[in-house]
Amino acid sequence: MIRAIFFSIFDVHEGPKVLHQVPADSIAPSNKSSQTPLVHFPSVSSYIIPRPEYCSKLITFCTPAHRVLCQPVCLHSSTYPRNAYTFSIALVLDASTPFASYATVTLKLASLLQTLEEQSRFLSRDTSAPNTGKIYALCEILLEDLNNYCESMIPIDDSNTLNIKLFPTYPPPPPLFPHHVPLSTVRLESLTDPNWDLTMLRVLPHINGINSVKQISLLADADYKLVRKAIEHLLYYGCLLLLDIFSFSASYASTADLASFVEDTDMQEECAAYVALPPVPNNSKVLQSDPISGFQLVELYLKLRQGQTVKSFYVDNVEIVDRIDIRRFITFGVIKGFLYRVHRYAIATSQTSRRKREPKIKSKQKADEPTAAEFQIDATESERHQLQLGKFLDGTHCFDEICTELMIGERELMRRLKAFGDVQIICR
Questions:
Q1: pTM score of the predicted model
Q2: How far apart are CA 88 and CA 49, in angstroms?
Q3: Do 16 and 48 contact (CB within 8 A), yes or no?
């Protein structure tokens, strides 16, 4: 939130001087005012109206409670006293306010006022009293519009209009990996425009909460780096959530936040609607499964635990789970934060490296034997698989990541891990 906007100049007789300020007496209070200024102007005047070499640059500094942003401008011409005219329009914010978007506003304001002054002497010919006239009205409207609407459109004259918009600053998106599954939180098709990036338009149809980032790049027939950048862009603006690859061999467990789901009947109704199976047409009739109750949903979520796969959970509760979409059931819990994925990681022991060297020696010894050609091909293929797999066996790569990078299924991964040697699998 903007606390104040003020316009100052370098007066040839008085030096740096505040001409207009909104609210009144917020920067340079009058002698009759008892109000404490937000910023003590005499102490910071050398930053607001600096030497010419520091002009035309964004300047920001903090006081104990506030931050000031400005871009001083110095124009040289023989028509000005001392052949120069220096001015600055500054914004005062709370010290804790993120100021990146306000810096853009400050730069645009300084650029517009410089253009107006060069074209028509809009600033230097203004002889109105302090806190009156067009410049004061401009500051007043800006403060009100930006604080209330985050945008402003102010007609300056017949040929100039000021258009300012505060764009929100979001935190950086979470790290994105090939095995992550993006799920849209908005209707992306309603936001699309023919002028959008071509990669983005090819990516959007494949974002369905099922395909991973790597799969999306393959389905869209687009470069992975471009697909990743497009998805990161959607993540930055909050259009997507990141999930794990859903599989029946995965394991999920509840968190302490499940208590909020137990107590919140509205969330239970939302979940029941989300996981309900769509009607199935059967000849001339439409079959609709019986709705599931909130109590049954709570009971199902409580049965999820570590060491139990989704497949075994489904088998144990088939009478109830058969009436819902199991993937949506898991996804809902992950989105709301009361379910978490129990990942599996593989760690190669020190003895494994010794065992890996043995097949290489044997294959070299048999390379000279013409009767062992087929064995040599198989051994070479096995060694290649071991080399590909070895870099993922340090305990920091989950099974989803390994399967995605190697483009194999979990069953094939388990087979290669057994062939690799002594590998420990941990769940966390």
A1: 0.72
A2: 7
A3: yes
